Amino acid sequence: MYEYHIEGGFPVKGTIRASGNKNAALPCIAAATLTEETVILRNIPEIEDTGVMFTILESLGVRAEKIEKNAWKIDASNLKTTNIPDEMSKRLRGSILFAGPLVARTGKASMLPPGGDVIGRRRLDTHFLALEELGVRITTNGRFEFTTNKLVGKEIFLDEASVTATENALMAAVLAEGHTEITNVASEPHVQDLCLMLNAMGAKISGIGSNILQIDGVEKLHGCDFTIGPDFMEIGSYIGLAAATKGSITITGVNERQLRPLKNSFRKIGIRWTVEGDTLTVAPNQELKVNQDLGGMIPKIDDSPWPGFPADLTSIMTVVATQVEGTVLIFEKMFESRMFFVDKLISMGARITLCDPHRAVVSGPSTLHGEHLVSPDVRAGMAMVIAALAAHGESKISNIYQIERGYEDLVAKLKSIGAHIERVEVK
């Protein structure tokens, strides 16, 4: 086992490159099983979650070969089974993404209920609703068994704009007979990446980026060479890190359009950046002061489906707000357990009132001190890293597996911009 040892109080400064979008990589890896031809995926982040996805591929009889850094060649021509290994299902919620492509290509798929972050109930009903509408029979007696004789296109209304349910429905619909219209879909950049990859494989998807997708089914898909977009969640995390440590950062390989939903929320707490081409710069000496709403009212940072502020960054914003002058309300609407990590921030000296499972009032700036922390999930874990780097003294963070599921080469990147962090083996 490993943990992070962090000496806080040192501003970060330097340049890093954005990694590929984890949440795009997972469905794109699963989508490679839709064809017998070779698929090449580039800009795949080297993290725990993608590693599990490649292990699942290999267990299915799929050849996955790393051809260069962050690039993989996938050959699913000799698919041998459609049973996802139990251990892999338990480790990763993204394992559910194999249901759609496997049942579309072979007519069946089998797995245990997926695991993943513990941030509240993450229902699968929407996945089942969409697949059943397309003609999939699903039984749930301890395992999820998906079977079909034929997929047929249909008008589908998702009961929530679930990212992974949208992706599963898409991967099944591209090989369904006839036309499918899916309404109330998620439209995040990672969903758009999956759509673009499927189209590169010969699918016929329109409406990409909107909340209504039109799909004309095709008989088969072919191979492709596709590059995953940058991870705007990682970029947002590093922007927050620079501000919280009163430092500066330059991030290359960004997509400015994807950062627009982040900009307004960061501005509410006095943080700004500039973008030239694909390079983003957070300058030093940020104002770090809450900009009150009209009438002197306390501003609110709340999440919502794309193009709203991403739920995954509310943990990051909570930490950054502890270093900002003024009071702000963080309102996390989507997961009832995501905010429970704030008790650790309070133990570090943060002034936070947790109103209920979804709302926290943060008053700053607070002087944080080092603490022994345990990462509960990917984003809260990264928020703890930022808190530790902004704090005075030494912190130790355990269960770093959760953090490394979502952040590529984190320690090396942080050290390259002046962070005092070590990855230490503990017994």
Describe this structure in words.
The structure is a single chain. This protein has 427 residues and is α+β, with helices and mostly antiparallel strands. It has helices at residues 22-31, 48-59, 86-91, 99-106, 125-133, 163-173, 189-200, 232-244, 260-267, 314-321, 342-347, 378-390, 401-404, 410-416; strands at 2-8, 15-17, 38-42, 63-68, 71-75, 108-111, 137-139, 144-147, 155-157, 179-183, 204-206, 212-216, 224-227, 249-252, 274-276, 279-282, 300-302, 326-331, 351-356, 359-364, 372-374, 393-398, 420-425. Strand 9, helix 6 (163-173) and strand 10 (179-183) form a beta-alpha-beta unit. It is globular, with a radius of gyration of 22 Å.
**How far from one another are the termini?**
7 Å
Class derived from helix and strand content? alpha+beta
Strand segment count:
23
Shape: globular
Strand content: 15-25%
Give the strand line-up of the largest sheet: 21-22-1-23
Mean pLDDT: 94
Write down the Rg.
Answer: 22 Å
Number of helices: 14
- Fraction in helix: 25-40%
Poorly predicted spans:
116-121
Major sheet, described briefly?
A: 4 strands, mixed
